Amino acid sequence: MSTERAQIAAACQRLAAAGLFIGTAGNVSVRVADRVAVTATGTALGLLTADEVTVVDLDGAVLAGRLAPTSELQLHLGIYRSLEARAVVHTHAPRAIALGLVRDELPVIHYQQLPLGGATPVVPFHPFGTAELAGAVRDSLDGRQAALLANHGAVTVGETLELAVEHALLLEWACGIYLDAASAGNPRPLSAAQQQAVADVSARLAYGTPKPIR
């Protein structure tokens, strides 16, 4: 999994540059078949190198790497055992944390949130690295690509690492928009009918996909 380990290092550097990772706080993983490449515990994510990524099996046994995997390993493995995700990003992004302190969910306030699966729930607080947190996050992601963790951070998933990273960046952007709007008044979410209308238009126009001029 040398390619995946290098991809994780690059993704961590990108997320750190965007302000979603601070120091050693956060973790990223990619699944290939029954193996998972995951960031090691205690590593500076903005400077992460491929050899600081560990490979484990779905039971958590280390298969490659010189460092112990993240303390949130069970969170990642719990998602892979139950969901179709192939990549997981867990951040301590500041706007995601702030919103999770005051809301029970992030409503859909902009149509760009639709790829996240609708409103993003806030998972009740559980200490990091625990089975309780892993189970609560796994359950909250059923049918969704993102969850906020109360007093903690955020988790996003994707069919690829690139998508999971994009979802993390999108979630942080949406949290920031909501918090900015809330400082001026009561944000107006999109209704279910409005969301469906946007989804219909997006499907018809293949929105977000490059198209040649005809």
Task: Walk me through what this model shows.
- This protein has 214 residues and is α+β, with helices and mostly antiparallel strands.
- It has helices at residues 2-17, 73-82, 94-102, 131-140, 161-182, 192-205, and strands at 27-32, 35-39, 53-57, 62-64, 87-91, 105-106, 120-123, 146-149, 153-158.
- A nine-stranded mixed beta sheet has the order 4-3-2-1-5-9-8-7-6, with helices on both faces.
- Keywords: Lyase, Metal-binding.
- GO terms for molecular function: aldehyde-lyase activity; metal ion binding.
- It comes from Nocardia pulmonis.
* Largest beta sheet: strand ordering: 4-3-2-1-5-9-8-7-6
Question: Tally the helices: what do you get?
Answer: 6
Q: Which of globular, elongated, flat, extended, rod-shaped describes the shape? A: globular
Element-by-element helix/strand order = HEEEEHEHEEHEEHH
Task: Return the structural class.
Answer: alpha+beta
Number of strands: 9
Q: How much helix is in the residues?
A: 25-40%
Keywords: Lyase, Metal-binding
Pfam family, one: Aldolase_II
Organism: Nocardia pulmonis
GO molecular function: aldehyde-lyase activity; metal ion binding
Provide a concise account of the structure shown.
InterPro entries: Aldolase_class_II_sugar_metab, Aldolase_II/adducin_N, Aldolase_II/adducin_N_sf. The protein is an alpha+beta fold and 214 residues long.
Notable characteristics:
38% helix, 6 helices, Aldolase_II/adducin_N_sf, Aldolase_class_II_sugar_metab, Class II aldolase/adducin family protein, 214 residues, alpha+beta, metal ion binding, aldehyde-lyase activity
